Amino acid sequence: MSVLRPRPPEEPLGYELTDAAAVADLAPRLEAVRDTILSDPAAVDLAARTLADYDTARPASDLFAILAAAREIRDRVDRLVVVAGGTIGPATRLLTASCCHPFHDQLGRGERGGRPRLSWLDGRSDNDTIQGLRDLVAGPASSPSDDLLDRWALMPIDCPADDSRQEAIVGLLLEPLAESVAGDPRRLAERIVPVTVAGGALAQRMRPFACRWSFPADPEVHTLTAAFSAATLFPAAAAGIDVVRFLKGGAAMLQRFREAPLHANPPLLDAAMALTERYRRQRWERRFAGPQGGSGWLSELADWLAGPRRPGPLAAAVVTRVVAGEPRRDRLELPPPAEDDLAAVASVIHLPRIDEHAVGQLLQALILSAAVERLLEQPV
Q1: pTM score of the predicted model
Q2: Is residue 325 domain-resident?
Q3: SS3 string of the chain?
Q4: pLDDT tens, 256-300?
Q5: Containing domain of residue 369, as a range?
Q6: CATH no. for residue 37?
């Protein structure tokens, strides 16, 4: 007998400005910039394109391959080590921090639904962190264990491309990974899932392994849009995150950007706010404050957004408060938390709940906001 499952909710997020004058002053330019972006949306519509490809060419689509690879990795290993820098590391950590169990890596495999733990390194990782992870994954070389709970896989991501320190870190992990499979080339090929730039140093290094699964780095790998690329979707899917709903949230926000009037258009409102705060008040850094949204993933959100943006003075920050209507876990009967002591909040984002669809909306809104802001900064 079939069971009808309720459709997961997909309410839109809300966006509230504390200074409406910023929008009024920029309204004509905001409309013109939106038209410019929508005339050639390739730099901002990766979520919608990936989802459309999956819906129309299912077995041949990139997302189908990502989901298939994630299922295989889940069955084969108990830990996935991601080596990535740029905006990719914060984006993947952001998804797991917001959409997984808060203590995902500390749960037993059964409690994790058979999904692997996740660990991250990048070119900024220090000696002790790298060595500590090697200690964690390396078993005795004389008798490598084939127990599922001791198996692990490696995902090196070419971001930033041809980073010598990052490449060296990958080399330090390939050694214990080869030892863990007793040098078996076939099994080693099943434990490495690279995301590489064609012709790059990492692609050359990975070629001899003949990896069962590999993904090309999207042209957007160095931009905010990479949050919707294979580099982020694969580890998220391996951890049990519903990446299809995540992409649907991004696609819904792109449609809203295209169709909604200015007063109900979060990307346009956010761009106007950010530009106003930057040049009127000299606030350059973006900060996202809870406490209802959760401090951990909001910190990752700020790191992701800061990646490709032009650096500026950090003495003051543009503060956006994130308020979640529903938490990820069952709600407890507790007194409300103390609010952050903030001098000024420039805007408030209202998430209907903390889940994949809402986070997809949020990231797409900030991607579009950054694109609008860049065009607004150009001379008229």
Answers
A1: 0.92
A2: yes
A3: CCCCCCCCCCCCCEEEECCCHHHHHHHHHHHHHHHHHHHCHHHCCHHHHHHHHHHHCHHHCHHHHHHHHHHHHHHHCCEEEEECCCCHHHHHHHHHHHHCCCCHHHCCCCCCCCCCEEEEECCCCCHHHHHHHHHHHCCCCCCCCCCHHHCEEEEEECCCCCCHHHHHHHHHHHHHHHHHCCCCHHHHHCCECCEECCCCHHHHHHHHHCCCCCEECCHHHHCHHHHHCHHHHHHHHHCCCCHHHHHHHHHHHHHHHHHCCHHHCHHHHHHHHHHHHHHHHCCCEEEEECCCCCHHHHHHHHHHHHCCCCCCCCCCEEEEEEEECCCCCCCCCCCCCCCCCCCCCCEEEEECCCCHHHHHHHHHHHHHHHHHHHHHHCCC
A4: 999 999 999 999 999 999 888 877 767 777 888 875 444 578 888
A5: 14-41+244-377
A6: 3.40.50.10490
